[in-house]
Amino acid sequence: MKLTHQNILAGAVNSNQYIGNDDSDTEIIPLPLHHAFGLRRLRTNLFLGATVILADGFMFPKVFFDAIEKQGATGICMVPSGFSIVKKLMKDRYIQYFNKLKYIEFGSSPMKLDEKQELAENLPDTRICMHYGLTEAAANIFIEFHEAAGKLHALGKASPNVQVAILSNEGQEKAIGEIGEIVVKGDIQTPGYWKKPELTKKSFIDGWFKTGDLGYKDDEGYVFLSGRKDDVINIGGKKVFPSEIEAALNQHPAVKDSACISISKGDELTGERIKAYLVLKGKEEPTPKELSQFLRGKLEPYKIPQDFQFIRKIPTTSSGKKQRDKLK
């Protein structure tokens, strides 16, 4: 995949414009610099002439606290799983230190709604930003937890200097509330893939870069994620998004996390059926019947999984994104 100097510069300019950091700031970067998010944060700060403090991951939160107390750090970039580690190790003690930060940027994977709400409540004076993006098109959507307190389940709105649209497979813009593919346009987007002309051609439509994610817009311009195009499950011609089922399952008091996939069976009239993999919080193991009853009223009947399996861990990428294909 190719990125030009213009792409890199645009990613830095747009992020700084949204977050509002400047050359007086000092940012803690606990992310690996071979990862797009960590590398972008390094570039954005160097572009400004700001100061960075490199930290080795999230397992030693005292490093962050010392940087804030002794070195005057004013910002930090984090992935949601990193914040979960900090909270697990330090409980509520993180609040007194993070309250001194001017900003936090989250990204790379989804964050639970209750964690977003907790952060907004505990850090009233810190600008808490979260981006949606990909290596091919940097951070192209942003949300700030206080400004969008009533819409924290959204991805956010288009980043500065970026256009975001929802298109059909034919390239027609979808109406408000209609699901289509999320596409982006701006100086941040890659010119294409190295020596892969066919993949490059498939990834663009009328100048828009196709993210491969499905979603919709509301009347205020907020973008909502429905799921990956490749993850969509077809039940009797009806599209089902695994993320919707997982969000419902994760509300069960015994469930820590979940991942849903489709399994095909030749004797099924619907062509596919849904299987849910569950990670439990403790030793309590709900029965399939109990789980199905719990989901009634939260989901349409055809979205309720027919199969449930308990596992120790959901496979994820290094940035925390679920790898549902590894469960098939």
Q: Which helices and strands appear, and what pairs or packs with what?
A:
Layout: H1 5-19, E1 26-29, H2 36-48, E2 51-54, H3 61-70, E3 75-78, H4 80-90, H5 94-98, E4 103-106, H6 113-122, E5 127-134, E6 138-144, E7 157-158, E8 163-167, E9 180-185, H7 197-202, E10 204-205, E11 208-217, E12 223-228, E13 233-235, E14 238-240, H8 242-249, E15 255-264, E16 272-280, H9 288-295, E17 307-310
Parallel strand pairs: 1-2, 1-3, 3-4, 4-5, 16-17
Antiparallel strand pairs: 5-6, 6-7, 8-9, 9-11, 10-11, 11-12, 13-14, 15-16
Helix pairs in contact: 1-2
Describe what you observe in this structure.
This protein is an alpha/beta fold. The protein folds into 3 domains: 5-153, Rossmann fold, CATH 3.40.50.12780; 163-228, Luciferase, Domain 3 (Luciferase, domain 3, Roll); 232-327, ANL, C-terminal domain (GMP Synthetase, Chain A, domain 3), CATH 3.30.300.30. Helix content is 26%, strand content 28%. The protein is built from 9 helices and 17 strands. The protein has helices spanning 5-19, 36-48, 61-70, 80-90, 94-98, 113-122, 197-202, 242-249, 288-295, and strands at residues 26-29, 51-54, 75-78, 103-106, 127-134, 138-144, 157-158, 163-167, 180-185, 204-205, 208-217, 223-228, 233-235, 238-240, 255-264, 272-280, 307-310. The strands form 4 sheets. It has a 7-stranded mixed beta sheet with strand order 2-1-3-4-5-6-7. Strands 8, 9, 10, 11 and 12 form a 5-stranded antiparallel beta sheet that branches. α1 crosses α2 (36-48). The longest helix is centred in the first third of the chain and has 15 residues, at 5-19. The chain is globular. The chain starts with a helix and ends in an 18-residue tail after the last strand. The mean pLDDT is 92.
